[in-house]
Amino acid sequence: MADIKIIGSSLAAIPWQDKPANCPAPVWRYSENPIIGRNPLPDVARIFNSAVMPYGDGFIGVFRGEQRNGIPNIYLGRSSDALHWEFEPEKILFTDENGKPFMPLYAYDPRLVKVEDTYYIMWCQDAFGPTIGVAKTTDFKHFQRLENPYLPYNRNAVLFPRKINGNYVMLSRPCDNGHTAFGDIFLSESPDMLFWGRHRHVMGKSDNWWENLKIGGGAAPIETNKGWLLFYHGVVNTCNGYVYSIGAAILDIDEPSRVIHRCENYILAPEEWYEERGFVPNVCFPCAALTDADTGRIAIYYGCADSYVGVAFTTIDELYEYILAHDKLWEGDDTPGRR
Ligand code: BMA
């Protein structure tokens, strides 16, 4: 055994199913997937690419809801078991620092991360091109937007769940304003969640076919005694369009722009009907993970085919062993990413 441990809270209520006997992979799907079906709200046709976390006696989440006018926005959901969700019918009302409504023109692919006593939501929105929006809340009633951390164009921002060397740290993926055909994961630091800098390259696409076009951060990194476990998405361009799979890497704990281990195999790729068939076929897009430090259980939340939300399970031991057994670093991975 590799003696890897999650550094985090206990979560006895984490959704869980044991690994099926015939499963060849390190990650297995919840048998009742998808957990959110079509038309979940009167105004929302599809919910996918969404993030959840423990809150109070249960769970809370920020959900990408595709409105019937085609514009995505972010909806709040609550659950007692993290599998059955109830949504607020209206999209989240974001305000500026004076409490005045300050809504993005659109907002998609939200992540939700708690740092100290504050919950941060980050998403992709327009600011003269797609870039990252951020808001904070402590009560899930008031959501105050902060300054946008990056210039356009940028997507897939993911905050680390604690400060590192005294600073907030966020991953992001610079892009263009279309269906970007390139993209590496970068890291930026901030002393205050307002001013961002010290940008570093973390990792790029690789020659592994499933991630040879672009990659992007997925769930908030999970702290372990061996480094930060990062779930990310990797994309290949096929003759039938982009295919999104889920990859895993371990980043250095104090200098997370350094990749220590990187799994050359994807850990989950589209193969079930709800991943292969939908508004955009062949998409597995991770945005969150629940963890239980006591048992090492992990529940990954991922968008399926731009139409549904799915859950998949693994344990930190099983996944780490798999990563080590298929470990392959690429040029620039094991460097601070500064030029
Ligand atoms: C990406 C993002 C995701 C989406 C994916 C597949 O560029 O826009 O929201 O899931 O494309 O369509």
From TrEMBL:
Keywords: Glycosyltransferase, Transferase
Gene Ontology MF, one: glycosyltransferase activity
Superkingdom, natural source: Bacteria
CDD domains: GH130 (cd08993)
Pfam families (UniProt xref): Glyco_hydro_130
Family: Belongs to the glycosyl hydrolase 130 family.
UniProt protein name: Glycosylase
Organism from which the protein derives: Ruminococcus flavefaciens 007c
